[in-house]
Amino acid sequence: MKKAILRVTVLMLFVTSVAGTFFASDASASYNSSNWMGSISDNTSLSSLSIPGTHDSGALYEPIYGTAKNQDLTIAEQLSVGVRYLDIRTRHYKDAFTIHHGAVYQNQNFDDVLNAVISFLNNNPTETVIMSVKEEHTAADNTRSYEDTFNWYVSKNPDKWLMTNHVPTLGEARGKIVLLRRFQAAQLPKGIDATSWQDNTTFTIQNAANLKIQDYYKVSDRNKKWNDIQNMYHEANSSNPSWLYINFTSGYNPGLFGIPNIRTIANDINPKVNQFFSTNTHGRFGITVMDFITGDHASKIISTNF
Fold first, then answer.
1. Is beta strand 104-109 parallel, antiparallel or unpaired with respect to 96-101?
2. SS3 of 185, please?
3. Among candidates 128, 123, 178, which has minimal Cα distance to 154?
4. Predicted confidence (pLDDT) per residue in 261-298, tens digit
């Protein structure tokens, strides 16, 4: 009887994590936070996955507490815990890109971001990174367009970029950066076109790629924010299988004189996200875009794919 129970236990579908290693499906396949996409079929669309992501991924610095920092982990650390969606905000300055959150320079440049991402992909070729690129703050002292400067960065490692305008499969995207473009471009196709991004709401974008995005970030009502997040999760899990759902759990509380308090929202919402994925352990939930993501957050999201 004990042997029979053991056999049933081994054959059961389960997902667990031990010291960063996850065991999926029939218990014979395992993955860790650096290579979890390697256990998923090539013909799987990125829209079919649950993907951990970060909002203002490069924002690790703030002059006043609570006003500009969005992450505790560096880009390299985010990728190592399983993040596969990065939200990169770049100021166009002297024909180069600096990383900004609003007016606050984040003590790193676009080359630093790309070096971290490309190094990760070279070491983990089964993975892909969806990178949202958006112009931030005020351009200054440039002799060329934002697009031209972006093209210059791409030209350094053209084989590491996937510029398709549709949502690709993992087979198409492995080892590459999938561009989600939030800037205007004359040369097309240049990534998934998200230039019609709307402000502080839930909205859809329909072109070669169909996107639904929840980005209610001026959070005056935390209950509304959490309801918006849950509604997106439930829709992603039950509807529109070819659509890419991007669900921002991030936001800030507009404080005195409009000064933001970022941590107040993260401190309230992040535990609810953890609880949601502790209960909803399997299914397709789209991209979760978080402030102050941790390895625990990421592992719970990742495990729903298996």
1. antiparallel
2. coil
3. 178
4. 899 999 999 999 999 999 999 999 999 999 999 999 99
Beta strand spans in 39-150 (E): 50-54, 85-93, 96-101, 104-109, 129-135
Query: Is pTM, for the whole model, over 0.90?
Result: yes
C-alpha–C-alpha distance, residues 63 and 58, integer Å: 15
- Under 8 Å between Cβ of 17 and 303: yes
Could you tell me how many residues make up the chain?
306
- Measured in degrees and rounded to the nearest 5, phi and psi for residue 9 equal -60, -45
CB 25 within 8 A of CB 261: no
CB 167 within 8 A of CB 129: no
In angstroms, the CA 185 to CA 16 distance is 43
Which residue in this structure is represented by tokens 């989600």? 180
CA distance 263 to 283: 29
Name the token pair of 253.
């509380």
CA-based nearest residue to 150, from 107, 105, 123, 114: 114
Neighbours of 248 (CB within 10 A): 24
